[in-house]
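S1.2 Input.
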Amino acid sequence: MTNKKLITTLTLCFFLIVLFTYGYFDAWANINNWKLSDSDDAMRVLEVRSWLGGQGFYDFLNHRANPPWGSEMHWSRLSDAPLAFIELGLRPFLPLPLTEKIAVFLLPPLLGAIFLYIAAKVSDTLYFSKYSILILALLFLNCSMLIFNFGVGRVDHHNLQSIALVTIILGIFKNDLKGGLIAGFALSASLTIGFELLPIEFLIVAYLGIRWLINPNCAKLVKGFCIALFIGIIAGLLIDIAPSKILMQYNDSLSIAQVAPIMVGAFGLLISTLFFSDKKLPYRFIALAVVGVFVIATAWQFPILRKPLYWQISPLFVKLWFGDVGETFPLKNFPMSLQFAVLGFLLIANIVGIWQTYQAFKAKNNFESFMLLSLILICLTAMTYFFQMRVMVHAFAIAIIVFTPFIAKILSQRGIIWALLAGIVIGPTATPFHIWVVDTFVPKTPAKYKYGDSANCRATPDFAHLAKLKKGLVATDISLGVETLLSTHHDVMATHFHRDTGRNELYRIFLSAPDKADELLKADKVDYIAFCNYHTEVSNFQKYYPNSFLAQISTGHVPSYLVPVPKPANSDIYVFAVKK
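S1.3 Output.
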């Protein structure tokens, strides 16, 4: 085994050991009690459970929410597949409930190792070092956001998207037909999973088009990309949409509305590279312009693409719940302390990336690759600050890749002491310094609400009193819906997902006057009411609609048609049975 392979193997083992043992006892206890990082993780478990339990491949409804219609999800079986694969592998050896929990425990660190391996390949393309993967691992393990998204229990799709992004970059950096195929299929997979990286993917496609326009020597890369994207996006459509619904249009998940213009663009760019790569620049420009016109004309045929994001949700839902979901808002809306801590790291990474790009331009070595990586990081930083905080994890993932060749070069030229200093000063290890500055000099802003993280409103023991009741329909506050499904046998009126129309009837009940709610509860055959006073939505009902049914019962004014269910001392979930 060569030194490079030995270092890679040892680093991956070290990396997995750290992730698997990072807060091991708390992590396993949380998974064992289904206290996961986020409600999206809980819904992933439910989706895979239903799928492996016999629910149809194209049936994305959660039939226990919003019965009898179900709660519609905008997710993909592609993002369900890794968790399902591990569960199926464990089932011959372990009881079914345990396989679910072990799979949730195992999957994220394994995905982290995949990300680390691919990211090291990207870094080696920029500056080859046998220590690239070790440097990356140390940067990764000192970045709390990456540990969170690849730590045990995190089975949402964000980690898969980070893997897809670095795979796209790796393929482009290879600069050949094989690299183009890798990048095209990875981009197709990313779009099949979701659209959170869509602006970055637009940037990458534009980069490839402009690169071919200026230098047609990359024609093989672009050809491979176009072929893979054309095939991959069709495969993605067939994964996400049943053949009988192939013409249905969505703007929050892959559908014909996105696939048609992508196919036109991929085919048009492929034809351009085949017939115009040996032509002069004006001809290549005209070819690209024609392709662009056809793509825009095709996209214009689908009105759904002109609708705003989350168009399904009402202003009332924004006011009561969605308007306080932190990850869907830009960093600039958050307290200055958090802005400083996040930007302190990302801006340094941007400076390092731009510096390396400049140096590569001067040396006429790998300039295009450095430039693409810097552009992606700049775009992700801007998206984090001006668009949505959820993009931050991908910005951090690219940032550590930007740092790695910089530190590797220092290591080879100046030695380990200087490399360690560079990692401490500019890497994620500098984050505690940013936090110290924030704590010392930035005025503290009190939290608007408690979000339930410190409350006993999420784990299975918190639902013990509800779980022992006869199966029925529960009207919960929105934040409690998914966890109720996971930790009890009951059905719920609604979950927080934006396609779930059950919240319309749920809010009709919660907003009604207490003397009218009884009639609505019986009409909808609701058996139980459950809520957590620590949740933002309950606080908003109390603030904006103090005379409403939910505001009244959450402040202790309980009507006679509700029977309180005694709760365990360690639970903050209030449950009431509806008198029949």
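S1.4 Remarks. The chain has four domains: 1-35+74-156, 158-308, 318-445, 460-578.
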